[in-house]
Amino acid sequence: MPLAALMLLLSTTPTTVAEARKLFEAGSADFAAGHFEAALDAFDHAYGLTSAPGLLFDIGQCHKALHHWQLASKFFRLYLRGKPVDEAGHVHGLIAEADAQAKIEADARPKTAAPPPQLAAPPPPAPAPTALPPAVVAEPASSPVRSNRAPWIVVSSGSGLAGIGAVLGILALSGAHALTATDSISGGTTESSLTQSQYVHQGSQVDTLASISLPLLVVGVATVASGLIWKLEEKSRPAHSRLSVDK
Q1: How far is Cα 66 from Cα 62, in angstroms, rounded to an integer?
Q2: 21-40: per-residue pLDDT in tens?
Q3: How far apart are CA 141 and CA 159, in angstroms?
Q4: Are 39 and 60 spatial neighbours (Cβ–Cβ below 8 Å)?
Q5: Whose C-alpha in 13, 56, 189, 211 is 20 to 30 A from the C-alpha of 181?
Q6: What's CA 209's distance to the chain center, in Å?
């Protein structure tokens, strides 16, 4: 094959040279035997190792033999870049031949008619409106009757006052009982375990407790009674009346 020696000149390592030479020799033998596909593969691998421009011509010759006219014209044109002009005429003739054959094949290729435009399918009909179920109107819930706690607060307060009055009354009775027992022991004299001043002081405390306990007891009992009466009156009133009072 012509110009194969350029591949060896552009190789850089002995290993690359030896491998590229083997590929070139195998490609040349395959080309001579008419095995153009194998020759094309060998030349292509050799060009990948060395990038030798002469192999571009060999690759173009393989494509020409395989009737790859457009590829043959492409590689012949690549080969002409920066190459000597002594072979330019011959290569230009090969390019013109490949271009002419490519045009003949293109003209002989049957023209396929463009497919007719497809009409868009009509949209599906809109679904019929469905009747909505009747709206359910919720009845307003009746307001719960709130319990008025004010009467019980009054009863609790009165119970507390009555309790305090009762406790003070018990203390007063206990003190009076203690003074009475002291009088009986001393025989009406002041010669007892209590001095006269202590006796007078304790008697004063008993009087004070008695004067406080009775009003507290009376007020407490009256308060409890008024609270209970209030609650009984509230229960006897209609529900709407109680709601207006609670508000």
Answers
A1: 6
A2: 899 999 999 999 999 999 99
A3: 38
A4: no
A5: 211
A6: 75
Distances (CA, A) of 97 to 32, 77, 83, 237: 21, 13, 20, 122
**Cβ atoms < 10 Å from Cβ of 96:** 12
Give per-10-residue mean pLDDT for the chain (247 aa). Answer: 47 76 94 96 92 90 96 92 70 91 89 69 70 60 63 85 86 79 59 67 81 84 86 72 51
Three-state DSSP state, 203: helix
DSSP state of 85: G
Alpha helices in the chain (DSSP H): 5-9, 14-32, 36-50, 54-65, 69-80, 88-108, 150-186, 196-236, 239-246
Token pair 């004063």 is found at 204
Q: What is the C-alpha radius of gyration for the chain, rounded to an integer number of angstroms?
A: 65
Using one digit for the tens of pLDDT, what is the confidence trace for 145-180?
Answer: 566 788 889 888 888 888 898 888 888 788 777 768
> Rounded distance, CA 204 to CA 198, Å?
10
Residue that the structure tokens 């209970």 belong to: 228
- The amino acid sitting at 185 is I
Q: pTM above the 0.90 mark? A: no
Q: 166 to each of 24, 51, 203, 225, how far by Cα in Å? A: 132, 125, 19, 16
Angle, vertex CA 87, rays to CA 84 and CA 88, nearest 5? 80
The label of the residue with tokens 């508000």 reads 247
Separation between Cα atoms, residue 71 and residue 36, nearest integer Å: 14
226-245 burial string, b = 16+ CB within 10 Å, else e?
ebeeebeebeeeeeeebeee
